[in-house]
Amino acid sequence: MRALRLLPAAGLMVAAVALAQTLNEIGASARIKWPNDLQVEGRKVAGILTELSADPDQIHFAILGLGINLNGGRSDFPPELQASATSVSEVVGRTIPRAPFAARLWKHLERWLRTHAEQGFPPVRAAWKRAAATLGKKVRIQEEGRLIEGTAVDIDDSGALLVENARGQIERVVAGDLEQAP
Length: 182
What we know:
By secondary structure, this protein is of the alpha+beta class. Helix content is 30%, strand content 33%. The protein folds into two domains: 8-131, Bira Bifunctional Protein, Domain 2 (BirA Bifunctional Protein, domain 2); 138-180, SH3 type barrels, CATH 2.30.30. Strands 8-7-6-5-9 form a five-stranded antiparallel sheet, with no helix packed on it. A four-stranded antiparallel sheet has the order 1-2-3-4, with helices on one face. A hairpin with a 2-residue loop joins strand 2 and strand 3. It is globular and about 45 Å long.
């Protein structure tokens, strides 16, 4: 098996696109909230995390983790999350068998990893943008002790969010806690 050269942000975007497609196929109209959440009807249904081991000049490995609220009910969430989270089964109105769901997700993940390996990030970026819940929205991002507010206008070739602030300047956001601004 050939090793893939995939940067952590690209891996996150690949996984988000694959998971969104999987959810959409089973009837849950999923959108991607930058950088690592999937939402259905504005409520969180899944999250993606990456862990990285690297030196300044070399990535040793990246671990991708997906947490999907597949078959829970609203009462399974803590009270403080019941308004902002949901499960796939709650949205589609039926229990989702885990093994077939995982197989479908793996198929999409493999296809997008192959696409990235053969064509680079542009097709992943385009698919991510089509599924984005964040773009075009007013956002507030807490990033390393500073607050960034503006309109999310795009993602760049590395997956960073581009936010146009009130002065019309574009700010590049690599990581942070994002919430939609009123």
